[in-house]
Every structure is written in structure tokens, then in C-alpha cells.
Design a protein that fits this description.
Blueprint lengths: L10 E9 L20 E3 L8 E6 L5 E8 L7 E6 H6 L7 E10 L9 E8 L2 H11 L6 E8 L2 E11 L2 H15 L4 E4 L5
Parallel strand pairs: 1-5, 2-4
Antiparallel strand pairs: 1-6, 2-5, 3-4, 3-6, 7-9, 7-10, 8-9
């Protein structure tokens, strides 16, 4: 094992994708400006500032990235790498790769934090309100988080404020099975 890794604390496997234009120069979720030429990435639940080693399982190439953004919000994907990080592990051409993530360092344990379940993202607030109203009787803790993306301004519909990722995963499974929703567990670093 490479020095400095903390895989006993956190390790994950899945599909990585990459992002660059049109996100380059826009504000990331942690507040800094996203630079696709830096070794940074988006993850749904790791704390901002966490450093993870990403290993491309098809070629063994590795890169260490710092988490600055939230995503990917595509089923089955575990991390979105910047263009520079994707180039470092030779996955730009294919666009995705099977990867292993291992914790190098972080500002807090990955399990510490507040987690929520994203059940929808809409450009029209009325659509977000409609979904919220339909779920409110069974899920009283529903709130919105606004964000800007290249495609426009969005309203994320989020359910619950849970103390750990496992509880959030259980809530996500319930929302998916009982309500037929596509769900994503997300760390909420700041709640509005």
C-alpha cells in the first residue's frame, strides 16, 4: 500500500467521469472557482478539502485529487474528476473509467457530517414545490438548495438532515422503493 493512505477509514469503487468546460471558471460548491487544470474533483459525500487517491483500475494509473464540489449526480458514478485529473489517469478519451478511491487525508472523518437525500433538481421552482408538496405528508423535513449550473439555475429538492451516511442511504432506498424517485445521498456542508 502506498504511504499516507487511510483505506481502513474510507475506500470506494465505482465509475469516474470528468468535467471541464463549461464548468471551468464557475464557482464550485465549496466557494472556490473551479479550474479544470487543477487536480480537483466532485464527490457527493466526502468533506470539502478531502484528498483522495484515484486509481484507474484498467491501467493502474493514479492521481491524488482534492474534493471541492458536489456530484456526480448520475447513477453509478462515484466521482467527477477535473480535466487535469482525468488526463493524469488516461480517461479523457473514454470519458469514464472504473476506479478505486482511497482516502489520503481530510479535514474531518468522512462519516462525520450532515447528510440528506436529493430527490429532484428543477429549473422551475414551481416543479420543485410540486414535488415537495407531494412528499410533505410523509417526509416533513424537505428543503431546497439553489445552485447555478451551465444549463441554468436549479432548485434541488432534499429530504432529511441525517447524522450519518448509512441513515441517509436507508432513507434514499425508502424514497426510491416507495415513491419511485431517483435518489442521491449528499453531504450538506451548509444548510439554508
Amino acid at each position: 500500500m502506498a504511504p499516507g493512505l487511510l483505506p481502513n477509514i474510507y475506500s470506494e469503487q465505482g465509475i469516474a467521469s470528468w468535467y471541464g468546460p463549461p464548468f471551468h471558471g464557475r464557482r464550485a460548491s465549496d466557494g472556490e472557482i473551479f479550474d479544470m487544470n487543477q487536480l480537483v474533483a466532485a464527490h457527493r459525500t466526502l468533506p470539502f478539502g478531502t484528498i483522495v487517491r484515484v486509481t484507474n483500475l484498467s491501467n493502474g494509473m493514479q492521481v491524488d485529487v482534492r474534493i471541492i464540489d458536489r456530484g456526480p449526480f448520475v447513477a453509478g458514478r462515484v466521482i467527477d474528476l477535473s480535466l487535469a485529473a482525468a488526463q493524469a489517469i488516461n480517461m479523457v478519451g473514454p470519458g469514464t473509467a472504473s476506479v478505486k478511491l482511497e482516502l489520503v487525508s481530510g479535514p474531518q472523518p468522512p462519516a462525520a457530517g450532515i447528510f440528506t437525500v436529493q430527490v429532484g433538481a428543477f429549473q422551475e421552482r414551481e416543479n420543485a414545490e410540486r414535488l415537495r408538496a407531494g412528499l410533505l405528508a410523509r417526509y416533513p423535513d424537505i428543503f431546497f438548495q439553489e445552485f447555478d449550473a451551465p444549463a441554468g439555475h436549479f432548485y434541488r429538492v432534499l429530504v432529511g438532515r441525517l447524522a450519518n451516511e448509512q441513515a441517509a442511504e436507508q432513507e434514499a432506498a425508502k424514497l426510491a422503493s416507495e415513491d419511485g424517485l431517483q435518489t442521491f445521498v449528499v453531504r450538506v456542508d451548509t444548510l439554508q
